[in-house]
Amino acid sequence: MSSKGRMTVPIEAGMDYDLMKDILERWGADAVRNSDGTDLPDQLQEMKMKVYSTYFPTRNDQLWAHEHPDQRQQMYIMTPHTTAVEESLQIELMKGYYREQLEVDYDHDPKRWWEVINRTTGEIVDPESWSVDPITGIVTLHQVNRFHTYTVTFLVWQIWDQTQMYNHITNQWGDKPHEIPYDARHSPTWAHITEYMKDWLEANKHVDVVRFTTFFYHFTIIFNELAKEKYVDWFGYSTTVSPLALEQFEAEYGYRMRPEYLVDQGYHNTPFRNPSKQYRDWMQFQHKFVCKQSRELVDITHQAGREAIMFLGDNWIGTEPYGDLFPSIGLDAVVGSVGNGATLRMISDIPGVKYTEGRFLPYFFPDVFYEGGNPTAEAIDNWVKARRAILRKPVDRIGYGGYLSLAASFPDFITCVEQISDEFRTLYERMNGTKAYTPKFKVAVLNSWGKLRSWQTTMVAHSLWYKKIYTYLGMLESLSGLAVDVEFISFDDVLESGIPEDIGVILNAGDAGTAWSGDDYWANEAIIACLKQFVYNGGGFIGIGEPSAFMHQGRFFQMSDVLGVDKEIGYTLSYTKYDQENTSDHFIMGGQAKPIDCGEKVEFIRSVSEQTQIIQMQRGDIAVAANSFGKGRSVYIAGIPYSPANSRLLLRSIYWAASAENEMSTWYCDNVETECAVYLETGWGIVINNSQDPQRTKLYKNTESYIEVELKPGGHEWFRVDSLTK
Questions:
Q1: Range of the domain at 715
Q2: Phi, psi (degrees; rounded to nearest 5) at 718
Q3: Do both 357 and 407 map to the same domain?
Q4: Which of 408, 431, 454 is the last residue of a domain?
Q5: Following CA atoms 34, 39, 41, 47 in sequence, which dihedral angle do they give, to the nearest 10 degrees?
Q6: C-beta atoms surrounding 14 within 10 Å
Q7: C-alpha–C-alpha distance, residues 129 and 170, integer Å
Q8: How many domains does the structure of the chain reveal?
Q9: Domain contains 184
Q10: Residue 150 within any structural domain of the chain
């Protein structure tokens, strides 16, 4: 196997050159890069490696930003809900916001561009009945309804780029000047961006790969008055707003984009909300603009003989890698941060690029690399989670980010990454571009977003842990490495085209009222009938948490007759329930040594049919159940945080729901801590240990043929497929 290549490492001026060179050789790097806040060393030519350089189209030239303040980026923000106790009300605009990040825009007429709303009634307050004082930053409502609640939605200028601010705080950059983002939608700024880039390419001929970080609009990060994160939405379009954009939107779509359509009662259109028509229109409007302008920068890059790659982060808003126009950008590659298996698949499955690259954790920053820190443990955990996803759909390259000089002080970490990089290259070469074995049927994840949010469901800030959602992220994380083909479909897809014939099992998971469960889509009779018909004719349905949840016509779960369970919300307490476990040895529980951990489980689940197979109960509530409906089958699971045991539960549930349990033993490991992947075209197979303990497992080729494999902690073993004979 190759001992070099497919590895990008951050380097920096000022670091000991011999030490840097030694690490690069040990890791088998064939490319180097800088990071935000670092410069590349002078010895680049000696290294004879491909050189990446970060590029920030909308903040590279701070002189332009300061000379053209009218073309800075903007956003709408909203004041806290304030209750009137007298006949007039004063609301402080910037209360709770960080004044070094945002500045109120008084240049554009507040009476035209702002909106004051009575949140008790939802009505817009007549602009003639309120005024604003630019000196004090206070809006006065001159005549209000006492004890009604009001908000002001107003325009602000962005006076500090979100990523630079985060890095400034994390890395203690002190007095380093604050960088201001400017808006590519303004014609003079756009002309400057393109000319500046041409000059930059000419002045940086040592750069082989331009790493756009990213293009124009940052995902939403709003800081509070203490410079701490107040609101973060990795999918948020808040920074794409400006009066110019609003005017162009109205000209194209034929209606005015109200401020309320963007602040959305203060929820800012989090992806947990069912997206409104207006918000979908705004996203597509920006998607068209961003893809068109990005293509121009990519063309300039290619004309200069360089590669163009995009970082899936920072200013990625509007690119939408799973959007219909993304391939038109013409990028060579996408690189993104790998937090786990789900985020790896989010990168590796992106269509329309020549290759993909994963930036592994930890980032070489002082919040991890400090005296007493343990970056090696984080690196191992990150690799083990990502590896199972790599076996299904690999990225083409891996790498790291940050300050290599920090990492160099941790010799165990250097050795660990050396092993990871060698293991990755072996995986990639033995897969050789082929696909691992999967069953004939596909699994579809059904929610309100569908394909657009492939491998992005239930995330808030790029896969970070939240108590409210980790049970659902567990489903996504499990799927990222399971031996099944996964698609993401929306309720609109079902309405327009029905269910694809190659789909064998549909998963619907999430809290009631969210886009992931579906909310009021479940009041649509066509959707309900289509899905029930799918199951009745032999399909599988798996519901997790509060699937199909919408109170309608005497049922909370609209698929309750399919699932065999519903949720008690207090309306049927008069009905006596006699639920108790009756099928504890069900097929889907095979190999489980203890009860399933349902995480922050949904409570008060009850059976609605005598035939419901109650597999596990927890504190008097149904936690796991199965049911038959016509020729099809369903499984209900209250919650499924990621663990090897829960991942195995989901896999067995999928096979059982698909009525394919007899096929389960085709390339299968009986130990839940282990998994395998088999590449029939290359003749290679691999067994991996997802735990940090030694494991022994039986590797089945089919029900009659297997071998026993012993694995070291976190280890793996390769085998030749033809060595397993019947």
A1: 668-723
A2: -90, 155
A3: yes
A4: 431
A5: 20
A6: 10
A7: 44
A8: 3
A9: yes
A10: no
| Token couple for 268 | 């800012």
Rounded (5°) CA angle 101-363-647: 110
Q: What is the rounded CA–CA span in Å between residue 540 and residue 649?
A: 15
Q: What CATH number does residue 697 fall under?
A: 2.60.40.1180
Q: What is the pLDDT of residue 726?
A: 38
640: CATH: 3.40.50.880
The catalytic position among 314, 349, 422, 485 is 314
Q: Are residues 625 and 713 in the same domain?
A: no
Place of tokens 């390339």: 667
Whether residues 701 and 657 fall in one domain: no
The tokens of 663 are what?
A: 């096929």
Enter the tokens of residue 560. Answer: 């309750």
Q: 670 catalytic, yes or no? A: no
Which residue do the tokens 């018909």 mark? 533
Q: Are strands 130-133 and 229-233 parallel, antiparallel or unpaired?
A: unpaired
Cβ burial of 248 (10 Å; 0-12, 13-18, 19+) is: middle
pTM for the model stands at 0.95
669-722 tens-digit pLDDT: 999 999 999 999 999 999 999 999 999 999 999 988 999 999 999 999 999 998
Which residues of 638-683 form beta strands (DSSP E)? Answer: 668-669, 674-679
678-699: b or e for each residue (b if 16 or more CB lie within 10 Å)? Answer: bbeeeebbbbbbbbeeebebeb
Tell me the average pLDDT across 308-337.
Answer: 97
Which residues, at least 6 apart from 232, have a Cβ–Cβ distance to it below 8 Å? 220, 221, 222, 460, 461
Report the CATH number that the domain containing residue 375 is assigned in CATH. Answer: 3.20.20.80
Tens digits of per-residue pLDDT, 612-660?
A: 999 999 989 999 999 999 999 999 999 999 999 999 999 999 999 999 9
Same domain, 397 and 479: no
